[in-house]
Amino acid sequence: MTVVICPSADGEPTPAWATALAAQRRDVILVAPAVGVFWVAHTAMALRDLQSPIVLVAYGAATALVPTVGFAARSSRKPVSAYILVDGPLPSAEHRTTDWPDAPVTCVCDADSDMAHQAQLRGWQVVSGDISDAVTAASAT
């Protein structure tokens, strides 16, 4: 199992929890920053040499782009076994008409947030608190 933390999609710095998680676990990879139109391609290319299965973690604005990275991973035969979305906008509901999500989705956010309510309506798991707990749970499946 490889845990991949996607880079910021809007230039925000890598959060402290991401750096700490990568330092604590050998199976966590931080993808180098990339902003702009090449974000999806850059992130997908980072997956090409990894061992499957992959847990894909995205935060902030990158959470809305996760379906495209998941599709790119499937195209390169690197299936995503779980998605973890941290404090950001959910992917457009339009993606629900395609084959996304193709793996369980966990949203890590404040339980009273709009993200939490939308995620619950979609049948996704909502977790408040430590992101490492969500990563550990997703890695175990």
* Largest sheet properties: 6 strands, parallel
What is the architecture at the second tier of CATH? Answer: 3-Layer(aba) Sandwich
What's the shape? globular
CATH C-level: Alpha Beta
> Which whole number gives the mean pLDDT?
88
Succession of helices and strands: EHEHEHEEHEH
- List segments where confidence is low: pLDDT < 50 over at least 5 consecutive residues: none
Helix content class:
25-40%
In whole angstroms, how far apart are the ends?
10 Å
CATH fold descriptor: Rossmann fold
Radius of gyration (CA) equals: 14 Å
Strand order of the largest sheet: 2-1-3-4-5-6
Strand content: 15-25%
Please count the beta strands (DSSP E, at least 2 residues each): 6
Q: How many domains would you count in the coordinates? A: 1
Number of helices: 5
Q: CATH homologous superfamily - what is it?
A: Alpha/Beta hydrolase fold, catalytic domain
Strand-pairing-aware structural class: alpha/beta
What does this structure look like?
By secondary structure, the protein is of the alpha/beta class. It has a single domain, classed as Alpha/Beta hydrolase fold, catalytic domain (Rossmann fold). Helix content is 33%, strand content 19%. It has 5 helices and 6 strands; from the N terminus they run βαβαβαββαβα. A 6-stranded parallel sheet has the order 2-1-3-4-5-6, with helices on both faces. Helix 1 (16-24) links the parallel strand 1 and strand 2 (28-30). Helix 2 crosses helix 3 (66-75). The protein is globular.
